[in-house]
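Instructor's aside before we start: the two examples that follow are unrelated to each other. I chose them only because their records fit on one page, so don't look for a connection. First example below.
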Amino acid sequence: MSCFVLLITDLTTMRREIEQYARGVRLVARPPHQLAREDWNRAALVLIDAQAAPILRARPHELPPRDAVMLLADPEDQDEPDLYRHALALGAAHLVTVPDGSGVLRKQISMLVERPALMVAVLDPDPSGEVGTASTASLALAGTAAGEHLGLIDARPTRLDLHRAIQRARHDPPAADSGSLRTLFVIDSQPPPEDAVREAMTDLARRHAVTLLHLDPHQADTLATLGGVDLIIVPVRARSVTAPATRSVVAAACRATPHVHVHVIGDAADTDVVAAVAAGIGAGYPSMTGGGPADMPHESPDVDAQLGDTNHHRRLWEVVARYRPRTSHPA
């Protein structure tokens, strides 16, 4: 596509940070001393590193006024008064802290993309991670059955192997228009480092309409990874919907992205899923659904029921469809 996002910075760390948000659109990085007026005029969106702002303002010839300019700041510098002077002088419509304000940044960039890619993280608060594994498998199966082209990153080793969960689950065959699934799995008992996950996210997002990430919310690196995520799904057993661990994960997710959805799984015949959803709403959870698949006679009945219930797969996929960015065409 002809449109591009211009990032003005001489910091490698800033460029790497912004790359994860610029999925589906070309990112052009220029040091402030080497900025050409043509790039400034032609870019669909201009992102200016706050450290580069004084250099731009000191140019012998002022840059012409233009729309769609954002000033990017480090969270530690957001109270610095010069930031607002720089923003006004350069015509910035937004002052965004990175990565804290990544949701705003990602939304602005996604508006430029002809078919925005969607990055979905699944965070299971339970230490076992089994419900999260089953939910990720269910999403993958439902997406391919709907003819979607998906990427999947499994960065959370659990007792329930995600690959085997996908293989053993009963699910509808892919649609005639050929859904596909490309998977990247962990190969040992330790989660991969943050840089490896981010690199995989960028790679898969360039090739697939939707990328699923199965992450451990209790790993320190996970919070840093969530800045590039569009939607976070927190699957939880009904009995744990307002447990401290769940509340903590939901709160952290809400700080990372405005789109957080809690999905309640019934794990026993007498579980009141409706009451669990109501409790979550009362706890301030922003978006919720519940599912109570019939129990099955296995060690983990709720997990087996998830994997075997194609209707539940589709209901979970509807959550992804609800938050999918609308297709838009740049002017």
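Example two begins here.
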Amino acid sequence: MTQPDIIVIGGGAAGMMAAGQAAQAGARTLLLEKMPLPGRKLGITGKGRCNLTNSAEMREFIAHFGPSGRFLRQAFARFFNVDLMDFFEDLGLKLVTERGGRVFPASGQAGDVLRTLRRWLQEVGVTVQTSATVERLVVTDGRLTGVVCNGQEIPCKAAILATGGASYPATGSTGDGYRFAAAAGHHIIDIRPALVPLETADSVTGRMADLNLRNVQARLLVNGKKVAEDFGELVFSKSGVTGPIILTLSGLAVDALRSNHKVELSLDLKPALDEQKLDRRLLRDLDARGKEPISSLLRGLLPAAMVPVCLDLTGLPAERTAATLNAKERRKLGRWIKDFRLEISGHRPFSEAIVTAGGVETKEVDPRTMESRLTEGLYLAGELLDLQAETGGYNLQAAFSTGWLAGRCAAEAVQEGDL
């Protein structure tokens, strides 16, 4: 192609949306992706099903990002969940909305989302260059003038940084964008894994590896005080715990661990029963099944894989008959079921994190355009920014929305001669 007006660095959700919108708005657009194909990380999101967005209304949607969510209001006002759904359906991709407002391709295949986006880029005239390693941005007198890629400087009027975070580095998200942004003067909030499995201090969880609990109340304790809780699904692993509720709580856990605080997880295995109702349930079971071993009684209360763990941690002999359980032992068992404690010793690495916490400080980016407040002609979008939410389609919508806004605004600035 002739010299591009706009170079987009990174071919993930934000980058592909930014490139396509810039081209559709009339700008000569070059998309640089260092992997053999764009969208590798997008292809594994939502366990390979690609949770594109969530149907929540804007106020609730923004709340999932915490205090930083206010930054997204401008982008969401221009391009939000309904707009994204219309965008994909207009391109022929059918969508479905599932439990919790989560929106997926009807096929359940992330590959269909990728094929739709790649076809669209071709249709709107984006030049896509793969295996393209960007080394640095060219900034002259506070203004972006080009990009050095594969040893060659490519002049341009604007560039959009959409390199993603540092999670799942095998897909190409290796944190390059933080270095580029820092070189352009931006402050980088310390990055750390988010929506990441947690590790426990002992081997108890390994004995229950792959056990899935669907209706659990999990409380996160920092220095003995509850800081957050969630209800839903949890999965034990060889090294610790994962699953939706653990991922939701993991951001606070990671930050507490980084500050050398004591972090624990308190699991209520019977959240539908308060302590008194649980005690009455135990009394009924003891009365009806008193001749059975305690281990047999517990299998009516707990998954089989948890029974030996419960017996070990409560000190109850497996072969004692249930009728021999005294009141003190019964109360101890009830407390364990309502407050199964796990000490959190660490977290899994970036390679297992769904998103990256931290990143480019949002106050240095204009939320109306996504242009850098420090370097003219430089725009930033997607996970590179210090914006993180829970699972449920929120993070991907933020990537698409900020990408859409960056692409549109960069193209407008180029066409109006501002760049």
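The radius of gyration is 25 Å.
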